[in-house]
Amino acid sequence: MTAGHRPLRELIAAPHPDLAPLPPAARCPSGSRVLRGVPFAERAGSRPLELDLWLPENTGRKTLPLVLFVHGGAWLRGRRDDMGMRTRDWDPGPFARIAAAGIAVACADYRLSGEAPFPAPVDDLRAALRWLGLRAAELGLDMDRTVVWGESAGGHLASLLALTPGPGPAPVAAVVWYGPADLTTARGPFDPRSSSTPEALLLGGAPADRPDRAREASPLAHAHPGAPPILLVHGEEDTMVACSHSRDLAGRLDELGAPVRLRTVPGADHGWHGLPAARVEEIFDQSLRFAQDFTRPDAGAR
Hints:
Elements: H1 8-12, E1 26-27, E2 33-41, E3 49-55, E4 64-70, H2 94-100, E5 104-108, H3 120-134, H4 136-139, E6 141-151, H5 153-163, E7 173-177, H6 198-203, H7 211-216, E8 230-235, H8 244-255, E9 260-265, H9 277-293
Parallel strand pairs: 4-5, 4-6, 6-7, 7-8, 8-9
Antiparallel strand pairs: 1-2, 2-3, 3-5
Pfam families: BD-FAE
Domain BD-FAE-like: 51-253
InterPro entries: AB_hydrolase_fold (IPR029058), BD-FAE-like_dom (IPR049492), GDXG_lipolytic_enzyme (IPR050300)
């Protein structure tokens, strides 16, 4: 092979996500633009990881704050563009609404428990943040104003992103809807001795048999005084993830002097099941206002 010639195998392969051109953006009726299926990481033996990116109209050409949204699905299913069953029929949808408020939204894939065990999903979300930081100038993003927002299993992962150090941009705040906070202790339907629960599938074995990994995967174990502001919202009648998860995490953060807000919602089961539509809208609006509060240009001076 002559110098300067690349092997055919390299020529056939798609460009690496760090270098690949961005796809064209589709315009939405709400005025935002969306880039769908943007690769951000390659994992050996696994599917390419992709994200959807919602960009608000940016007539002022200022850099945009960002929400990294993390989907739920018990770590074993789910879609990156799904904020939960109660938002699926919204028009405009939840991500278009966040973009209309002037905040970009990245909805990222992560490897599910059938693909790779913990900490793979956290590693993948950090890879999304790294890629967004790498391409921030092209996309007009200010990664120093990033909020993570997750629901259910995605809330658990968002909590870990906010509470544990890692490479790449660090979130300035987090919104957590009904997320598990403790994978070590029996709560509600969760039994740490079982090897068939979603938590066990995430960890690669029953949490009771893997205490170190269960603790590593528990946001409650990572609470610390320097944690960023976190909004925890949880239904009081949650039959899938006990409300005590959020109560105990909020109590621990408050005890340590970390900024935390807890809202428990009477009459709400998991996924806001049982709530009137207006209450779900109000929870979303409160969460969006929280994200806005910590992504304003002067938020660091608060």
